[in-house]
Amino acid sequence: MNTSDAVIVRFTQVGDVPAICSILNHHIAESVASFRTEPYGVEEWSKQLAAHSDRYPYLVAEVGGAVAGFAYAGPWNPKQAYAWTTESTVYLSPDHQGRGIGSLLYEELFKRLEQQGFRSVMAQISQPNPGSEALHARFGFKLLGSIRDAGHKLGSWHGVGIWQKEFGLLADPPVPPTPVER
Ligand SMILES: CC(C)(COP(=O)(O)OP(=O)(O)OC[C@H]1O[C@@H](n2cnc3c(N)ncnc32)[C@H](O)[C@@H]1OP(=O)(O)O)[C@@H](O)C(=O)NCCC(=O)NCCS
């Protein structure tokens, strides 16, 4: 997978989940990047990994043997006709932001999603989040519109931008996306 200046991007293993929860729970507590207000437990996140990681890539970026961040895709909507539309998620530990690691994770994630035969990737970016907006714009996401005052967190209302990145057109009718290749 992607390697740059001692950053290794690889598939998530069960042993990574405590570090992933610690990164995620930091952002849940300190920011509006996630609209969740309750921390994730290792068991809950492990169940999500087990349920989805055969169909969607779950990646981590490792620096010096420790998990510095993660990215994955998941279903945008469970209704069957949405099978070709995914939603992406990316979080880094605060010590590793702004050094290109989010871009390394997204390069690998989108290469794989396109190869699997997905048609587009959605992202919901709560406002304000200039770092996330810049990362998504860099990868070709377009802002479709925003839900105003979508959530109330840390003492104020926040909107959410709905972003979409499209891959090439698929055969018509399309074949179902293939499972993750390890
Ligand atoms: C958002 C996040 C994943 C971006 O990853 P990153 O490794 O910091 O981003 P990169 O260093 O790869 O930078 C990608 C682009 O965004 C820009 N960027 C990064 N942080 C920025 C910031 N705070 N403000 C403005 N632009 C920023 C970079 O300059 C770069 O732009 P370029 O392609 O024009 O050079 C990371 O900052 C993060 O984990 N943030 C907290 C959690 C979060 O918000 N997750 C997303 C939820 S939707």
Describe the structure.
This protein has 182 residues and is an alpha+beta fold. It is built from four helices and eight strands; from the N terminus they run E-E-H-H-E-E-E-H-E-H-E-E. It is globular, with a radius of gyration of 16 Å. Bound molecules: coenzyme A (COA). Coenzyme A binds at residues 27, 33, 90-92, 97-103, 125, 129-132, 134-135, 138. Coenzyme A binds next to strand 5, helix 3 and helix 4.
Q: N- to C-terminal separation?
A: 10 Å
Q: Under CATH, the topology is which?
A: Aminopeptidase
Structural class: alpha+beta
Overall average residue pLDDT: 97
- What would CATH call the homologous superfamily? Gcn5-related N-acetyltransferase (GNAT)
CATH class, please?
Answer: Alpha Beta
Tally of separate domains = 1
Strand content: 25-35%
Please describe the topology of this protein:
Elements: E1 3-4, E2 7-11, H1 17-30, H2 42-52, E3 58-63, E4 66-75, E5 85-92, H3 101-116, E6 120-126, H4 130-138, E7 142-153, E8 156-166
Short synopsis of the structure:
Helices cover 27% and strands 34% of the residues.
Features:
single chain, 182 residues, alpha+beta, Aminopeptidase, 8 strands, binds coenzyme A
